[in-house]
Amino acid sequence: MGYLSGKNILLGVTGGIAAYKSAELVRRLREQGAAVRVVMTAGAAEFITPLTLQALSGHPVATDLLDPAAEAAMGHIELARWADAVLVAPATANFMARRVHGRGDDLLTAVCLASDAPQAVAPAMNRGMWDDPATRQNIATLEGRGIRVFGPAEGGQACGESGPGRLLEPEQLTENLAGLFSNAALTGCRVLVTAGPTREALDPVRYLSNRSSGKMGLAVAAAAAEAGAQVTLVTGPVVLQTPSRVERIDVVTAAEMQQAVLERASAVDIFIAAAAVADYRPQFVAAQKLKKSAEKQVLELIRNPDILATVAALEAAPFTVGFAAETGSVERNARHKLQAKSLDMIAANRVGADLGFDADDNALQVFWEGGSAALEKTRKSRLARQLVALVAERYHHKHNGDKVIKLHAKDPA
Ligand code: CTP
Fold first, then answer.
1. What pLDDT, in 10s, does the model give residues 172-220?
2. The pTM is what?
3. What distance in Å separates the CA atoms of residue 211 and residue 94, rounded to the nearest whole number?
4. Does residue 311 share a domain with residue 235?
5. 112 an active-site residue?
6. Choice among 1, 113, 140, 159 that is catalytic
7. Environment class of residue 247 by beta-carbon count within 10 Å: exposed (0-12), middle (13-18) or buried (19+)?
8. Is 60 within 8 Å of 52 (Cβ atoms)?
9. β-strands 148-149, 119-123: how paired?
10. Strand runs (DSSP E) across 17-131, as ranges?
11. 274 CA distance to ligand 1 centroid (A)?
């Protein structure tokens, strides 16, 4: 699975001869699993056609800030929100100067201004332009604001000169971009995550289950891996791909999930229970397919073990994080579960029309003893990164107290 899997990359293309390489860059980004949307400046469209990049990215290419049709489809604010990262490649000297001055007079600069996602520029220009003091200062200013600068490489240039100013190769840019999503918040930690639903068999063809898609749990596993943790994911049946650098163990029933978790729980530092475990299972599982007969059927159900509570009660319990899906009184119910199950943290969400199960977006209220945080509605991948940053902070706080070192300078999302 690609190392940019599930990531939304907004690629800005500005007007330099290296713009032709953006076609290859779009392909590389998509090969690594990213969804790519391209914004071009007017200058870029003189070097490579929007149609080329539309065909390669699979999305219409936006070029105009004042185009009513484009703004109605996916305007600059939506594009800015959509992006998990913004990469401008090639970035001309002129673009960077405009960026330094906070200009927002074309679509690309407006999107860059509006986005709070990590951003990078890949400069490409003649070596003299690169060496000019104004460019040097602009680069330093952008870096000072946390914008990453990829390259440039040295070598022969389109103008016939040789020196620094070549656009990095698409492969290198793709790798550098993946680095934007990594941080060191959980380096050296072992994290165990449960995800998805469980299925409790009634007979060989029927089961009791729930609507959990596993999206949140897998996003949490991916975010923990990005934070440098060694991650094991125990998941019920889901149709999602395993995030990169995550060990996955597939289970079906709550009992199987419990066994897989308990075999590992004492050896991990953090346990995050995102699975929607079936609370009950049929008392009797028919060996043969049940035949319809009576007008009314009564199913006898028995309680499944509470995996989360069992882990939290272990003598060598890891830092334990639970989830709670609530339809009302979110804080009261979540705080009650935090205490009743002796958890370190609980992430509660309101389940309703477009929130919770199977949705792409979610919002969470996170509680721990003496504190709370509200994580606003956003894509589950981004929400998971925010949650993992919070888990890392509380985990280090628990273990280092006041000596807590904030390893993650900034939430990557
Ligand atoms: N959980 C678990 N094992 C179970 C049931 C739940 O590990 N058998 C975990 C879930 O992964 C989740 C949390 O416990 O982290 C949910 O707790 P629970 O009290 O079951 O929440 P609800 O299902 O919302 O419970 P209730 O119906 O009682 O509100």
1. 999 999 989 988 899 999 999 999 999 999 999 999 999 999 999 999 9
2. 0.82
3. 51
4. yes
5. no
6. 159
7. middle
8. no
9. parallel
10. 35-40, 85-91, 119-123
11. 9
Domain CATH code at residue 110: 3.40.50.1950
- Asked if 237 and 263 sit in the same domain, the reply is yes
List pocket residues of ligand 1, CB cut-off 6 Å: 194, 254, 273, 275, 277, 279, 304, 306-308, 322-325, 337
Q: Which helix (H) or strand (E) holds 190?
A: strand 190-195
**Residue 168: which domain range?**
8-179
Instruction: State the closest ligand 1 atom to the C-alpha of 305, by its place in the atom list counted from 1.
Output: 8
Q: DSSP letters of 264-323?
A: HHTT-SEEEE--B--SEEES---SSPPPP-SS-----EEEPP-HHHHHHTSTT--EEEEE
Among 146, 179, 212, where does a domain finish? 179
For residue 86, how far is the Cα from the chain centroid? 14
Statement to judge: residues 111 and 198 lie in one domain? no
DSSP reduced 3-state for 108: helix
Q: Which amino acid is at 392?
A: A
Same structural domain, 308 and 387? yes
Strands 371-379 and 361-368: antiparallel
Please name the residues in contact with 277: beta carbons below 8 A apart, sequence gap of 6 or more: 194, 198, 254, 257, 304, 306, 307
* pLDDT < 50: residue spans in the chain: 402-413
